[in-house]
Amino acid sequence: MELTGEQLKTAETLLKRYLPRSQPVYGTLVLRNRVRSDPVKVLVDRWPEFNVILCKPQYEQEGDLFKDVLVFANDEVMLKETIRKSSVIDWTLFLCVGIDLRHAEIFTAVASEKNAPSKKRAVCHMMILEDVSKLPSLDSINPGICLSCLDESHIGLVNQTWKFGKNEAAMRMMHNMTANFPSCCVLDAERKPVSWILTYSSCAMGMLYTLPEHRGKGYAKVLVGTMARRLLAEGYPVYCFIEEENTVSYRLFKNLGFTENPSYRETWFAFNYI
Predict the structure, then answer these.
(1) CB 79 within 8 A of CB 106
(2) pLDDT per residue over 166-177, tens digit each?
């Protein structure tokens, strides 16, 4: 069934009991219940004691590969039964699904049944901030640094530097992110971004990037600290995904007080993109 209205707020509260495994879906509902964003359907296998909850974005065209389906499940039998239903997942579509790595075999098995070729896109650590004491003090920020939010005029630059970007689908996603979710950037003397961080629709911080000629100035620490404090002040969870091979970012976030549950990995699969 699809959740609406007060059910979405109740689901947000119920998901807290399953943190950190429910973090991506929980974060999606936190934003969904508070700010504007692209339409998302929230489906459960039953209500209110659900075993599976799935956030499914509205696909507008074939190239919407960055509109991720996010899933949380505490019963693998019910998960398999749920995602087999065409009313829940249309396996003929181009899909990107974010799931707990432990559920990957279930998704690939059902995809095989549905003749939907799959490809693993990323496996990530999920880093969560619970101790703010290691964040850089705002008083320590160089007074010459100009902080601002990203806007629509900056999307082209961000798109060109993101590893999964350089395409119209990424541009559409970034438009939604900059228009509706928190972001932060460092501007140069000409008011152009030189370093930035955004918020995904799951409330995860991401796309942290500094132009090569501006690295080594501590901008990343300033942006992570500023964004984390803003999210905390607004009652949002503070976390991020870091690809397993990205050791530089892993060390950065760990040094800033972010921790992970070593038993949990989030993975993204693309279906029908082969």
Answers:
(1) yes
(2) 788 888 889 999
